[in-house]
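Example (one chain per record):
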Amino acid sequence: MPLKWALYLLFCLGLLSCSTKKQPSPTEIAQQYYRAMNQSDYEGVTELFLDSIRMIENGYDIVLSKEDYINWLQWDSVFKPTYKILKISEKNGKVQLHVSKSCRRTLFLNGEAVVNNELMTLRDRKIEQVEILNYVVFHDSLWDANRSKLLRWVDENRPELNGFLHDQSKTGGLNYLKAITLFEAHDGKSLKSP
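Predicted structure:
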């Protein structure tokens, strides 16, 4: 009988330890999100969201299924992005972030990392939405000029790559990267001056 009670006690203690497992804070969830983004961990990223992914940027409210978001992540990962949280704070379940993103595409178009102020909203320990509140470092005229130069060069020299700009699949990303690489090799320099 004492062995039976000892096993029962161990079982109860095991249940108690499982139920008191510390839940991650909103800031820890935000940090997990950007860690997974840096590792191109598609499943790790989408597990942090509710059923769908809602992104808000420049007044555009985009709701994606997890499958569509994974397709976008595959496109984004082609450019080898590095996300850095420069500042983070939490208030009432919302996480305010100051985030930089540096990748082959942003360096080519913007001349340096893009920096945003973002607001991440969570519900039930899952990310409900990520909103880019404003751009801190984004050279829109340089971005547009460099993109136009690239598109003109592709039209004139590599028309088989046309369409890469709007194809946000992995194939589109690879074509975009190829266009940048070929342009820079032909042009002899990068467009990295803001």
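Caption: The chain has seven helices and six strands.
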